[in-house]
């Protein structure tokens, strides 16, 4: 059973409402959906959603890297050679983690479908029953964010993550207003998406103390792990690293510098599941609990993250909220907007709606 054909669809996923964070606003989501067909008749599905502010990749650059450089490495190879694929891919082209992730996810899905096992069985086996999802709220006015937080509590969410990274004064106001709107016992998490300096971060954290923020995600600029370490060392608040931590080497730097208490692993930064799982293992050895985060992804990449999250004891939270934000998806998500429940279906556990993929497509490439 070897790989005979790979298709790539560039699709635009419509959002229910625009998504605004510190460094960008998104009206819709540009995604690359990959299908890897093997001679066994199975198709494995993968996806890349790039963030040019994080990995430097764009929709079109990832398309070209996949179609011209990486996908041809797989033709004629068996699906289980995932380690060999990563070594060949790294030798062929450095970086480009989201392009590599798309193929890594499709290979894992293909292998699990061929074995007729759910993907989590190949990633260590189930260790969590189900995944509770947070509600992620865009950076808007304090009043609007509080209104959305109140709505989310009524819908049954048990954790709220708010996007900040504006001026410290405005952000302190947002934290206070959102906390007032939350039902008792609902967790409040903050993600500044690099929007503060180290001193601003410490100012916000100090003023936010009465509001019980569970953790503060990536308060400072991506390029300065030292600055993140400075914040971490100066406060008792829990600090989570996100944008600077792509793969294992970054994880080692966090550990050496004691730069953060938690790490947000994303498949689009780690080049897929292969390295992400090792990052979670390394985190466990260093007493750094991890979250599995996501870009705003369709059910394909979201579920790849979910299978990893449900299979690893050191993954204590997730941010797999892409499908809940989409007005149209390429498959039916198992669960609802507030949780993901994975059953024993093979692979990612979804049937891809190929007509929907074609409807949303802006371009298509075939590699064989
Ligand atoms: Mg983040």
From TrEMBL:
Chain positions recorded as Mg(2+) binding sites: 191, 217, 242
SUPFAM superfamilies named among the record's database cross-references: Enolase C-terminal domain-like (SSF51604), Enolase N-terminal domain-like (SSF54826)
Keywords in alphabetical order: Isomerase, Magnesium, Metal-binding
EC number(s) given by UniProt: 5.1.1.-
Family annotation (InterPro entries): Dipeptide_epimerase (IPR034603), Enolase-like_C_sf (IPR036849), Enolase-like_N (IPR029017), Enolase_C-like (IPR029065), Mandel_Rmase/mucon_lact_enz_CS (IPR018110), Mandelate_racemase_C (IPR013342), Mandelate_racemase_N_dom (IPR013341)
GO BP term (any one): peptide metabolic process
Mandelate racemase/muconate lactonizing enzyme C-terminal domain mapped to chain residues: 142-238
Needed co-factor(s): Mg(2+)
Keyword Metal-binding set for record: yes
Keyword check for Translocase: no
Catalytic center residues: 163, 266
GO molecular function: metal ion binding; racemase and epimerase activity, acting on amino acids and derivatives
Gene3D superfamilies: Enolase-like C-terminal domain (3.20.20.120), Enolase-like, N-terminal domain (3.30.390.10)
Family: Belongs to the mandelate racemase/muconate lactonizing enzyme family.
Protein name: Dipeptide epimerase
């Amino acid at each position: 059973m070897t790989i005979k054909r790979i298709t790539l669809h560039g699709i635009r996923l419509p959002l229910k409402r625009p998504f605004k964070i510190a460094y960008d606003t998104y009206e819709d989501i540009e995604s690359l959906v990959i299908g890897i067909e093997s001679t066994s008749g199975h198709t494995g599905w993968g996806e890349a959603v790039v963030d040019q502010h994080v990995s430097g990749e764009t929709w079109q650059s990832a398309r070209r890297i996949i179609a011209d450089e990486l996908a041809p490495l797989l033709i004629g190879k068996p699906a289980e050679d995932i380690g060999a694929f990563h070594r060949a891919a790294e030798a062929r082209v450095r970086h480009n983690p989201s392009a590599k992730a798309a193929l890594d996810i499709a290979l894992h899905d293909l292998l699990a479908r061929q074995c007729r096992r759910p993907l989590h069985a190949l990633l260590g086996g189930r260790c969590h029953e189900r995944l509770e999802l947070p509600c992620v709220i865009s950076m808007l006015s304090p009043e609007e964010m509080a209104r959305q937080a109140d709505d989310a509590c009524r819908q049954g969410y048990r954790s709220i993550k708010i996007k900040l990274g504006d001026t410290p004064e405005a952000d302190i106001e947002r934290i206070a207003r959102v906390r007032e709107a939350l039902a008792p016992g609902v967790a409040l998490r903050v993600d500044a998406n690099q929007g503060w300096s180290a001193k601003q971060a410490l100012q916000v954290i100090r003023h936010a103390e009465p509001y019980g923020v569970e953790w503060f995600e990536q308060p400072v600029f991506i390029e300065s792990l030292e600055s993140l370490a400075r914040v971490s060392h100066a406060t008792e608040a829990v600090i989570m690293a996100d944008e600077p931590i792509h793969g294992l080497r970054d994880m080692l730097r966090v550990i050496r510098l004691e730069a953060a208490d938690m790490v947000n692993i994303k498949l689009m930064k780690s080049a897929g599941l292969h390295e992400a799982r090792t990052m979670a293992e390394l985190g466990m050895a260093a007493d750094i609990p991890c979250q599995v985060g996501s870009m705003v992804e369709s059910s394909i990449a979201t579920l790849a993250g979910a299978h990893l999250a449900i299979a690893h004891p050191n993954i204590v939270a997730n941010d797999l909220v892409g499908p809940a934000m989409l007005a149209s998806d390429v498959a039916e998500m198992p669960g609802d907007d507030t949780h993901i429940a994975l059953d024993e279906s093979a692979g990612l556990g979804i049937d891809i709606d190929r007509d929907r993929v074609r409807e949303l497509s802006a371009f298509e490439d075939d590699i064989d």
